[in-house]
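Practice record 12: protein with heme C.
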Amino acid sequence: MAKSPLVEEPGKPDESPPPPLSRNLITYAGWGVTIVAAVMTLVLVASDILFHREQPYNAMVTYLIMPGVVGAGVGLIFLGIAVEWVRRHRSAPHYYPPLPTVDLNKDWMRRRILLGAGMLTVLFGTSAVGIYQTYHYTESTEFCGLVCHQVMEPEYTSYQHSPHARVLCTECHIGTGAEWYVRSKVDGLRQVYAMLTNTYTLPIEVPVHNLRPARDTCEQCHWPGHFSGEMVRQIWHFSPDQANTPMRYSMLMKVGGGKPRIGEGQGEGIHWHISPDVTVRYWPTDWSRMEIPWVEVTVADEEPQIFRATGYEDLNPPEDEIRVMDCIDCHNRPAHMFKSPRQLVDASLAEGRLSTSLPYIRRYAVEILEAPYESTGEALEAIGRELRERYAARMEGPQGRAMVERNIGWLRDLYQENFFPEHNVDWRVYPDHIGHFEFPGCNRCHAGDHYELETGITISHDCNLCHEIIEQVVGEATRQPVSFDSEEFRHPRGMEDLWRGNNCTDCHAP
Ligand code: HEC
Ligand code: HEC
Ligand code: HEC
Ligand code: HEC
Ligand code: HEC
Ligand code: HEC
């Protein structure tokens, strides 16, 4: 930069600058580390944006480790300055190295300020992007599921086969807002510590400690006042006989929802518990919430109704242990479903993945999946060995062999998606609260033994309260559409056949 005579005092030469405090080895090293790490981070971020590969460990280096190194570099710069100050102070007792004075009349000072400001801008610019990306990364599914791979593998695997496979872990486990973000990271640090010191227990204890209320998570996507009406569910079972005889039944699930007791039919049904005007509170005897001897219902501003289980007539539970019922009290496995061998095999036979033409396949497959294994490897090996042994005769022809191998492959997939012996996790560990077949579920309250002291009214156990069985068929081929007394459309207003030969839109289009 050329000297400007206007700002210089005439006749007085420019002072030579005192050696700055930053002129020391530590600070130089700091600059080196910062610049190299910042450039590398920029390159990594650019390549992540340009090529976008789903590689969790790359993302961890880019968004956690490299920014950490940049931070450490900046730390070194300041550390060097501090050490240099102390050194100069020690070398001359009572000498306090002056802090820099800003004098914009000095050329060298202007240059230094410009340079410093430029560097700071670049640094802040990159770190703003970096902090944002780092925040994003710590919210990603890979971060949750894979960095803690060891511990959460069963949850990550089951999640990928769930209806919520495209929902971020954090959308259910953390929700929005800074408070829960910070809480989760603090909690995360505790978990990392437990992992490093090997003080965690498997399986992971549920219900999850400090899980955020469904209001702030599930209900960000699902609206509790939504009226679902009735849904048909078709359930398959197969017999452990030679023919794997199928049976299926179709049930009308009365999901309902909406506002309670207003209008005809609305506000009834299964989702009544979470209607905006209904509050169901309950007290479980223990942490796992499997036994619920006390239930309280408040509808709009009516008096609360209290139901107690037989044998708990005198119970008045402590207020701080009472839980308000929400989605998770029924849908506790929306993302991590570990299914039972029976459920898995029946569903696969219904879908045609396992071959019903293999005699006794239902029985063998369930037996093999139920057997205890020390490791996944052992189980996969056993699945192959057992099926090949049992269908040895078929293994002789190429077609039979291909079919047995296909069944082995599918059974192995089922095993790997639902059983985690290394983590002590399978369907027995995490009860599913929907239904009442393999676990008590609804019957924790609806078993018919919860009643109101004064009136004797019980919480209903009526088989048609929640569903109606509309079809039961034994022995028919698989994959039939639901068929119950279906009838032809009768056009309203007494014009029953009006629609024949026409499209509805011919007359009803706006
Ligand atoms: C649709 C919402 C949802 C999503 C998405 C989700 N979870 Fe969960 N998660 C739950 C619920 C609900 C529970 C069980 C809570 C309870 O019983 O208290 C749970 C439980 C867990 C548990 C405790 C052990 C267990 O199996 O119950 C872990 C660990 C876990 N989730 C990790 C993850 C990870 C990792 C991801 C992302 C890969 C994820 N979750 C995605 C809702 C979700
Ligand atoms: C980020 C949005 C989002 C969040 C958060 C979310 N869900 Fe969902 N959920 C969906 C979507 C989308 C579907 C439909 C998926 C499909 O049909 O493939 C769905 C489907 C479902 C279903 C029907 C599953 C089925 O078998 O068809 C249930 C039950 C459900 N969610 C419960 C929950 C519960 C309980 C929570 C909270 C723990 C939750 N959801 C959180 C978006 C979300
Ligand atoms: C009392 C238990 C219970 C509670 C509480 C509950 N559900 Fe359900 N929900 C059910 C049952 C049972 C079904 C029928 C599904 C089935 O048979 O698999 C269902 C069905 C659903 C479906 C699929 C039906 C549809 O319309 O697509 C969704 C989505 C759903 N629930 C979301 C939620 C959400 C979100 C909450 C919390 C606001 C919630 N549920 C609270 C028991 C419950
Ligand atoms: C914490 C206890 C509890 C659990 C668990 C529970 N319920 Fe309920 N449920 C109640 C209470 C209390 C009522 C109200 C009883 C009454 O009014 O007589 C009720 C009422 C109902 C009703 C009738 C609603 C109406 O008025 O139309 C249905 C349907 C229902 N429950 C289905 C289910 C299903 C399905 C499950 C399991 C997925 C379930 N409940 C789990 C406590 C529970
Ligand atoms: C409080 C509500 C409720 C009551 C009362 C109730 N059920 Fe259910 N039932 C359910 C739910 C929820 C499911 C689970 C549907 C699913 O798998 O999504 C279910 C499932 C079933 C199944 C299918 C099980 C399977 O997977 O094969 C049968 C059969 C059944 N119920 C019969 C009955 C009978 C019989 C009664 C009367 C003693 C009864 N239910 C009372 C809610 C109820
Ligand atoms: C040839 C003309 C025509 C065809 C085709 C037709 N409709 Fe209509 N629909 C009518 C007329 C006319 C009415 C009586 C309208 C009124 O009274 O305001 C009616 C009334 C109805 C109504 C009573 C409710 C309303 O909006 O008034 C329903 C529901 C309906 N039609 C359904 C259907 C369906 C579904 C189809 C196709 C399968 C169909 N219609 C085909 C002419 C037709």
